[in-house]
From TrEMBL:
It comes from the Bacteria. Required for the formation of a threonylcarbamoyl group on adenosine at position 37 (t(6)A37) in tRNAs that read codons beginning with adenine. Is involved in the transfer of the threonylcarbamoyl moiety of threonylcarbamoyl-AMP (TC-AMP) to the N6 group of A37, together with TsaD and TsaB. TsaE seems to play an indirect role in the t(6)A biosynthesis pathway, possibly in regulating the core enzymatic function of TsaD. Belongs to the TsaE family. The gene is tsaE. This is tRNA threonylcarbamoyladenosine biosynthesis protein TsaE. InterPro entries: P-loop_NTPase, T6A_TsaE. The keyword tRNA processing applies. SUPFAM superfamilies: P-loop containing nucleoside triphosphate hydrolases. The keyword Metal-binding applies. Keywords: ATP-binding, Cytoplasm, Magnesium, Metal-binding, Nucleotide-binding, tRNA processing. It is found in: Cytoplasm. Transmembrane segments: none annotated.
């Protein structure tokens, strides 16, 4: 589908609910194989959900998303939006105590595998989840999966949700774990890694839509 047509389709399917601002480094393609990062400022959980739903609509079986964010940043809200875009049943909750949940699709398309890796400390614990067995037929979202699940695929979207008060010091993210306001701004950082996302026209069109 041509990029212009996809932008029109996105505009009709996901009308803007509140303003957002999109930043990227001038002259750099945000969807490149070397993992260029981009940032989106969203105004509260409603727009977090809205953006995630739009992203979910362009995902396909085999996609891996690594999701990081402190308490109240909107990780579950983000995954709920992804689920709507993918086409799974509503009612996604955090898999904190069961570690992993599979949400079957309600239409033709991939299932959603939702993992909370916060308590997983070793490669063996990750292997025990057997995520490889469902990876090719599902969209896999791993909360707190940074430095734990990258071996699953040579392509992934690394997504970090930050609330005001969080900061990046060197290569470390320092989070504000105080209870947040649903209406406060969040920063969504996206790093597209690997050949799956190299100059992907759908993701490029989505980003164009949200920064317009």
């Amino acid at each position: 589908m041509p990029q212009e047509a996809l932008i029109t389709r996105l505009s009709r399917a996901f009308p803007r609910v509140c303003p957002a601002v999109w930043w990227r480094e001038p002259g750099v393609n945000p969807v490149s194989e070397n993992g260029t990062s981009s940032e989106l400022i969203v105004n509260g959980v409603e727009e977090t959900h809205h953006f995630a739903r739009s992203l979910g609509a362009i995902l396909r079986a085999g996609d891996l998303l690594v999701l990081t964010g402190e308490l109240g940043a909107g990780k579950t809200t983000f995954t709920q939006g992804l689920g709507l875009g993918i086409g799974v049943r509503e009612g996604i909750i955090s898999p904190t105590f069961v570690i992993s949940r599979i949400h079957p699709t309600l239409r033709e398309g991939p299932d959603l595998v939702h993992v909370d890796a916060y308590r997983l400390a070793t490669a063996a614990e990750i292997d025990d989840l057997d995520l490889e067995s469902s990876l090719s037929t599902s969209v896999t979202v791993v909360e707190w999966g940074a430095d734990k699940v990258e071996q699953l695929s040579d392509s992934r979207l690394e997504i970090v949700l930050q609330r005001p008060g969080s900061a990046e010091i060197g290569e470390e993210l320092v989070f504000d774990f105080s209870e947040g306001d649903e209406d406060e701004q969040r920063t969504i950082s996206i790093r597209a890694v690997g050949p799956r996302w190299d100059n992907d026209p759908q993701l490029a069109a989505l980003l164009t839509h949200f920064r317009s």
